[in-house]
Specification:
Number of strands: 3
Largest sheet: 3 strands, antiparallel
Strand content: 5-15%
Distance between the termini: 10 Å
Structural class: mainly alpha
Shape: globular
Number of domains: 1
């Protein structure tokens, strides 16, 4: 039941982000490639797992799109609203697929459980 709820929550956040993006005037076909822009935060892993977890988590916490949306609304800037929508949709997509915020031990260690393959070759089973 918990796994289903977490994935449903991710789908809802994705839908909300996509709606915000479209409502701010974003082209829906452009949303598809833009969904992968937040993954540039993974470049921090080039500096090691600790730095990577920090940069990844900064780009994948729901606080970022909320702050962007509030700033876009307050300043009347549709571009900030679109950025909030893209970021929120990306985070929702990740959560719906079972990817979570990272721990500094390894990219595979997330707040939703371990992802990827175990040392014995079997697939790791994420919590979500």
């Amino acid at each position: 039941m918990v796994r289903w709820l977490l994935r449903a929550e991710g789908v809802a956040v994705f839908a909300l982000g996509a709606a915000l993006y479209a409502g701010a005037g974003g082209e829906l076909l452009l949303l598809i490639p833009l969904l992968f822009v937040p993954d540039l935060s993974m470049l921090g892993y080039l500096g090691g797992p600790r730095l990577g977890a920090v940069t990844y988590n900064l780009g994948h916490t729901i606080v970022l799109p909320v702050v962007l949306a509030l700033a876009g609304w307050w300043l009347g800037q549709p571009l900030l609203l679109m950025a909030a929508g893209v970021t929120g949709a990306h985070i929702g997509m990740d959560r719906a697929l079972g990817y979570g915020l990272k721990y500094p031990t390894s990219f595979q260690d997330t707040h939703l459980g371990r992802i990827g393959k175990r040392r014995d070759g079997a697939a790791a089973r994420p919590v979500a």
